[in-house]
What we know:
The protein is an alpha/beta fold. The chain has helices spanning 3-17, 28-41, 57-70, 85-89, 94-112, 133-139, 145-148, 153-162, 188-204, 233-246, and strands spanning 20-23, 45-51, 73-78, 117-119, 209-214, 217-222, 250-253.
Amino acid sequence: MNTSNKLEVLKDKLKELESVIIAFSGGVDSTFLLKVAHDTLGDKCIAVTIHAMMHSNREIEEAKAYTKALGVKHIVLEIDNFDIKEFIDNDEKRCYYCKKAIFTNIKNIAKESNINYVLDGTNLDDLGDYRPGLKALEELDIKSLLKDSLLTKEDIRILSKELNVPTFNKPAFACLATRIPYGETITNDKLRMIEKSEEYLQDLGFKQFRVRTHNDLARIEVEENEIHKFFDKELLKNTHNKLKEIGFKYVSLDLLGYRMGSMNEGIKH
Length: 269
C-alpha cells in the first residue's frame, strides 16, 4: 500500500470514530494525526496535552502555538505533582505506569467532553523498540490509528510535508524521563537539569540530541554527522562549563552518537 492510500485509510478510520481526542505532544506523529483528524472531523476533534515534570516547557509552548494556528480546541492539563511511586522509582516498566496515569486522565476529559475515543500517535515503527507503555494503551482501549493504517515514520514525514505540517522535519523527541537510566530515581531537579542542557544544545544548532544522565554525570549524544562539531576546544570548554553550571559534576560525549532508545540497550523485549 502506498503512502497516499495509507492516508485515505486513516481518514476512513477517523470518520468511523466520529469524535476524537488526540493526545497531543507537539511531536511529528501527534501533530500529523491532529492535522488529519481536524481536517476530517472539524470541531469533533480536540487536542489534549499533558504538562507534567517529565515534559519540556519548550515543547509545550510549541504545542500551544500549533493548535492555535490550526484553530483546534486545545486543553492543557497541568499536573504539578506527578508522584506515581512506580514512575519515580524508575524500573523497566516506568513507561507503563506513566502512560496508564496520563491516558486515564485524558479518558476522563473525553468522557466529560462527550468524545467517543482517545487517540495516540504510535506509528508502525514504534513496535520495534522496547515500549512497555503500549500495554497501558491497549488496556485503556486507546486507539493508535497511525499504526493501524500501517503508517511508518517516513510515511508521516512525507505526508506532513505534503500537507504543510510544520513538524515534517522535526527531530524525534521523547519525554525527559527517558534520559535517566532504569533504577535511578526520577526527580524534578534532575529533569530540569536535562531540559536546560538540551535547550543549550538546541540553541547551539544541534538537530538531534540527548543529554543522558548517570547520577552526576551527563552523557551527550548528538547525531554521528554532528559529532565533529565538538572537535573544537572552545565549544568543548563552553559546553563543559555550561552543564557544570546547570548542576552536573562530570560532562562526557558519547562516541557512538545519538541512538534512539539507547537506555534500552540490553533489555530483553
